[in-house]
Amino acid sequence: MSLGKPPRLDQVFQKYDPPVYFVTLCTNRRRQLVANDAVHSAVVEYGCEAARRGIALGRYVILPDHIHLFVAGDVDFDLGIWVRGLKRVVAAAASGGRGQLENPVRAGLVTSPDEWPYQGEVVPIDHG
Predict the structure, then answer these.
(1) FRET partner for 34 with CA separation of 20 to 30 A, picked from 28, 41, 74, 90?
(2) Distances from the Cα of 31 to the Cα of 2, 24, 27, 65, angstroms
């Protein structure tokens, strides 16, 4: 181990075949949105679905404004695609399935997205 590295770092980031990735996802503007039961359930469900496809969601921690996790897949594993999917399910869980439809609020037109009259849902689309 070289000087300046924390203990056991060489063990954590050793070469794996295939590699193990350490990922951090942060909320926009570090808003405290993700440390809740809905997001936790969504992360676990996404991890279980991934496991059925040979992708391992390892140790993770969900904090109010960010998530840390380890993930590994087979040789064809595309980390970018997997992370985009995880972000989608986390965003849906954090927003109660409504998505981030905050534009009317940011524009000062209403105080809550639900107050905006020009929105709706014609056919419910499953976010799973």
Answers:
(1) 74
(2) 37, 15, 6, 6
